[in-house]
Amino acid sequence: MNRLPALLAVPCLALLLAGPAAGQSMHSLELLRGEEVGINPRYLLQDPNGRAVTQEEFRGRFQLIAFGYTYCPDICPTTLVEMAEILKLLGDKAAKLQPIFISVDPERDTGKVLKTYTEFFDPRILGLTGSPALVRRAADNFKIRYAKVREPDTPPDRYAVDHSAGMILLGPDGNFIKKFAFSMPVTEISAQIGDLLNQR
């Protein structure tokens, strides 16, 4: 994973300077209500140590969830930079929030790879993965779209994954609260989450 600093530094800086509109493909830009999108915030996945984890693991805390993959060139590193910044802005209140990054590339994102990747941004971010079937079920529950994109005549392990962007907030009861669009400023996301944390 020595590729991380070199691969992430340029796209992170470029996207943060260019604004969140850069690099979008099928990425959702709207802030959605749960009843509008039918999000069912349930997952059964594995942490980097192979231990089974569900949304019930964090009952009593808010969960801030993003889907992506470690080979993502732009959207995912930008999202995790923003997630780390949100934790920083929340200060001590961040203890009430569990940040989670769910891989949509389980074939390449092993637990070890995912752990190294998330800790590069902030050690509090938990990476989750699982079998392709479990990852697909979690993504479907959260209304996250993803699909492999492979150029012709490339090796089987050389592909990108086009996927929905944004961050999803669950409450301390595990229920869906809202989805933050990829275009939303970090300060606004942090302020909204902070207001909710103050009510606890």
From TrEMBL:
Tell me the disulfide pairings in this chain.
Answer: C72-C76
Database matches in Pfam families: SCO1-SenC
The entry's Cu cation-binding residues are C72, C76, H163
Q: Which InterPro entries match?
A: SCO1/SenC (IPR003782), Thioredoxin-like_sf (IPR036249)
Tree of life domain: Bacteria
* Residues spanning the signal sequence: 1-23
GO molecular function terms listed in the Swiss-Prot or TrEMBL record = metal ion binding
Name the UniProt key words of this record, in alphabetical order: Copper, Disulfide bond, Metal-binding, Signal
Tell me the protein family, please.
Answer: Belongs to the SCO1/2 family.
The name this protein carries in UniProt is SCO family protein
